[in-house]
Amino acid sequence: MDILMMVKKHGGIVPSARLVREGAKAHLIARLVAEGELRRIRRRWIAAPWCDQQMVAAARTGTVLTCITQAKRAGLWVKDASGPLHVAAPSHAGRVAPSSALVIHWHEPLVARHPDLLADHAENVLAGVAICQPFETALAIWESAFRKKRADRLVLSRLPLNGRARELLRVARPFSDSGLESYIVPRLAWMGVRMVAQAWIDGHRVDFLIGERLVLQVDGGHHVGQQRQADNVQDAALLIRGYHVIRVGYDQVVNDWPAVQDLIMRAIGQGLHVA
């Protein structure tokens, strides 16, 4: 039995007891560790040298990757996950050593975690995000989870969510095409103007239709080259059909929102949103 292939099958890290249950011989595992083909993490875990270092960190600290760390790993839209790892520790666990490299979540999970788990369930990840992150950041992640079908609204509604998570469940929608768009609706809701996300106009989708004639397009980092040319063609077609287009980028939404809001308010003030 090829123990290295068994470890690879489990993603590069696996409890040694599980390897033994699946037929690996303990003395052969020990030999591979001694030869440097595998490494032992806190006696319980066996890892390949190429294993994901975030998973190794979770195994070493006896925790589970969660919140924005696991959201990013799962492919959800996260504005910034470059800081410390967010991990969950079971309430009955021994003390996890304080570290500037870890943000530790102690709350009870919505979905029970198996002792062999190193990466949290989606429901626990979203609950952690709701508790830990600012509302806009959390909303973008929740909407990304719905859009990518990583979480189910009905399943979440049946879980004992706290007040913050309940509010996110109420307002989150799966229609935003990127996390940046998730910021827009809450920031403009106070104006009381009808706003449709991912609206279709003449066979093309726009990020937001405000009122009847004002289009807001939010560009990510991929809007260059051919994509930029296609955007220009679409903007011209919308103009000919009587629409007004405001196109903004990532940096404007994240770092200069007052200027973006001012543009939209002035356009609405001039009635550009009215047919």
Please, could you describe this protein's structure?
This protein has 275 residues and is α+β, with helices and mostly antiparallel strands. The chain has three domains: 3-51; 61-171, no CATH class; 179-269, VSR Endonuclease (Endonuclease, Chain A). The protein is 44% helix and 16% strand. The protein has 13 helices and ten strands. The protein has helices at 3-9, 16-21, 26-34, 53-61, 67-73, 122-132, 135-147, 153-157, 163-171, 179-188, 226-240, 250-255, 257-269, and strands spanning 13-15, 39-41, 45-47, 64-65, 85-88, 102-105, 195-201, 204-210, 214-219, 244-249. The radius of gyration is 24 Å and the shape is elongated. The mean pLDDT is 90. Pfam families: DUF559.
Q: What is the H/E order?
A: HEHHEEHEHEEHHHHHEEEHEHH
Q: Hey, roughly how much beta strand do the residues contain?
A: 15-25%
Q: Give the rounded overall mean pLDDT.
A: 90
General form: elongated
Please, how many domains?
Answer: 3
Query: Helix proportion of residues, in percent?
Result: 40-55%
Topology, number of strands: 10
Domain DUF559: 189-268
Pfam families: DUF559
Protein name: DUF559 domain-containing protein
InterPro entries: DUF559
Give a concise summary:
It holds the Pfam family DUF559. The protein is α+β, with helices and mostly antiparallel strands and 275 residues long. It contains 13 helices and ten strands.
Chain-wise SSE layout:
Elements: H1 3-9, E1 13-15, H2 16-21, H3 26-34, E2 39-41, E3 45-47, H4 53-61, E4 64-65, H5 67-73, E5 85-88, E6 102-105, H6 122-132, H7 135-147, H8 153-157, H9 163-171, H10 179-188, E7 195-201, E8 204-210, E9 214-219, H11 226-240, E10 244-249, H12 250-255, H13 257-269
Parallel strand pairs: 5-6, 9-10
Antiparallel strand pairs: 1-3, 2-3, 4-5, 7-8, 8-9
Helix pairs in contact: 5-6, 6-7, 7-9, 7-10
